[in-house]
Amino acid sequence: MEASPAATPVEPPLQGAVLERTLERGTTPPPERHRAPECFVCGPRDDGLRICPRHLPGTQVWSTVWTPDDSVSSIGAVVDAHIVWGALDCPAGIAVVRGGLAELTFFPALTSLAATIEHPVPVGRPVAVLGWLISEDERRINGGTAVVGSDGTVLASAYAQHARLPLDFGSR
User: Can you tell me the distance from the alpha carbon of 45 to that of 36, in angstroms, rounded to the nearest whole number?
Assistant: First the structure.
């Protein structure tokens, strides 16, 4: 896996009232049957972020609301950068497999994440977290992800490249 600062930010698809509809819908809980129950970002762990985007009907966006708490900040006011990078991981992965809309036919293994943190992510304030499909071929599937403030400011974004792995890759 490779992580690097992005040369240019990824533009989230905010048309069609995506932000307003996401904020109105609010936080979405982890699924009852989770493929990676120990995932710090989207899993059901009590000590995790619990960022679990769901499909936003009528769009190609998977989204949720996240309200970061003091546990993700070393100074108490803004989310630590490494946590923001984590928050940018799973939403793209969920979007590229059309989580909840289609049967899972492969596991999206993150191979590269190029992220930009444009503005600090505040602690104690709800933000929208979005994921969407950008492109795909027979070996890779690429998604975008963003953390967006309630005023529409893109706080952080990333381009996530995933390898298509067989569902049973870890059981051999």
Answer: 10
